[in-house]
């Protein structure tokens, strides 16, 4: 297969031809190599996106999402590799459940699934799972949705992670200090919505940085959302602590102020940032403090979400709006789109040792996306493949249409036009 288009990747930029054989990129070149199969002239050809933070809800919560609906949503969003968090029911704290998720994803065959094993059994924060047994089946360990509140348990788990050479992906939150619905500040007071103080996050971030420095284990801090958290990670990296960090696209596009309409579709944990937090998140992205951008795709049924904001569960369905969001973020914050693209392709591959992914390069897997950045699509219940329609973009037109997603040289998504 030969694809022609405007390529954006770490290794190759500009107009070129990608020759694919046996699911692998055989070469990337400027000259026309022969008969072109897919002419994506004037469109962008980029590496398949890698989302290191998503929830597909199966097993246990199939009314919110299944591995199949999640996979379809992922490829619609241009994502070909996705790391799944272990807060299923039962939790991904044992080989049986992890094996089930892997096998199911493989059968569906649309997207490569990287399971994240639970840090503690049932994610109860108390009893550490069998890291040695699970290590070869997972890309890392997390209790996402929470984190062990006990310093001793967290430290022990981190030592195990170091031993088996896998990262801890930490949802940094001190539960005793959180509670509440939105970020505490002038807007939470103005809107009369209960507030979550920023220290509920930053104290946990400080713990993580210090534990990483002490144990030399790689701790990846999930969804940073406050200025203070970014400062702490930046300082930790300067001191050589082996930490990395992520931010979600919704934390870069929406703010606490936007909760004026009390829409539970904007209720997310950690909560949407204040202006000064968002500015620092952008700075952190640009100076390398924040390594990657993730979706934290958290689908819910409309019945669960369409209730009073104080009672609704946290989470945004975001796997289909990542790529469009990157275009919006590039425009809103005046950032080069290429820099943002690296945060969802090259950087996660590099950070989590995912070989031969995240770049358009000879010998790499033919995971590719053809994107028309000039076209728009409307986010509707119908246009989303995810069962989770809980996105603040619902009803909005977004830039950037995924025309085709290719995984391992096979077309796994072909653009469908909705009105
Ligand atoms: Zn989380």
UniProtKB/TrEMBL annotation:
Pfam families: Amidohydro_3, DHOase. Its cofactor is Zn(2+). One of its GO terms (cellular component) is cytoplasm. InterPro entries: Amidohydro_3, DHOase, DHOase/Allantoinase_Hydrolase, DHOase_cat, Dihydroorotase_CS, Metal-dep_hydrolase_composite, Metal_Hydrolase. The keyword DNA-binding does not apply. One of its GO terms (molecular function) is dihydroorotase activity. It comes from the Archaea. This is Dihydroorotase. It comes from Thermococcus litoralis (strain ATCC 51850 / DSM 5473 / JCM 8560 / NS-C).
């Amino acid at each position: 297969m030969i694809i022609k288009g405007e390529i954006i990747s770490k290794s190759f930029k500009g107009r070129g031809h990608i020759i694919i054989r046996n699911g692998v990129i055989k070469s990337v070149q400027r000259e026309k190599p022969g008969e072109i199969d897919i002419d994506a002239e004037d469109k962008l050809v980029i590496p398949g996106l890698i989302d290191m933070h998503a929830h597909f809800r199966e097993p246990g919560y199939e009314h919110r999402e299944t591995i199949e609906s999640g996979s379809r949503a992922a490829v619609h969003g241009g994502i070909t590799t996705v790391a799944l968090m272990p807060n299923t029911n039962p939790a991904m704290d044992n080989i049986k459940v992890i094996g089930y998720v892997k096998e199911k994803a493989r059968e569906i065959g649309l997207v490569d699934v990287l399971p994240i094993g639970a840090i503690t059994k049932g994610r109860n924060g108390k009893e550490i799972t069998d890291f040695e047994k699970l290590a070869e089946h997972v890309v890392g360990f997390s209790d996402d949705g929470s984190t062990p509140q006990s310093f001793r348990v967290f430290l022990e788990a981190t030592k195990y992670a170091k031993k088996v050479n896998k990262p801890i992906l930490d949802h940094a939150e001190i539960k005793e200090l959180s509670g509440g619905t939105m970020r505490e500040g002038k807007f939470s007071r103005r809107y009369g919505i209960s507030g979550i103080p920023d220290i509920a996050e930053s104290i946990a971030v400080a713990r993580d940085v210090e534990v990483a420095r002490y144990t030399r284990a790689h701790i990846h801090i999930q969804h940073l959302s406050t200025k203070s958290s970014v400062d702490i990670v930046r300082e930790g990296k300067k001191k050589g602590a082996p930490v990395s960090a992520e931010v979600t696209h919704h934390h870069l596009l929406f703010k606490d102020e936007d909760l004026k309409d009390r829409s539970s579709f904007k209720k997310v944990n950690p909560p949407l940032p204040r202006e000064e937090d968002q500015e620092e998140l952008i700075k952190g992205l640009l100076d390398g403090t924040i390594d990657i951008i993730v979706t934290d795709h958290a689908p819910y049924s409309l019945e669960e979400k369409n209730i009073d904001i104080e009672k609704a569960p946290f989470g945004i369905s975001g796997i289909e709006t990542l790529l469009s969001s990157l275009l919006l973020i590039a425009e809103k914050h005046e950032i080069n789109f290429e820099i943002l693209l690296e945060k969802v392709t090259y950087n996660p591959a590099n950070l989590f040792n995912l070989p031969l992914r995240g770049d358009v390069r000879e010998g790499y897997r033919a995971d590719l996306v053809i994107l028309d950045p000039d076209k728009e699509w409307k986010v509707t219940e119908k246009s989303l493949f995810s069962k989770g329609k809980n996105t603040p973009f619902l009803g909005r037109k977004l830039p950037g249409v995924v025309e085709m997603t290719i995984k391992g040289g096979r077309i796994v998504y072909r653009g469908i036009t909705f009105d």
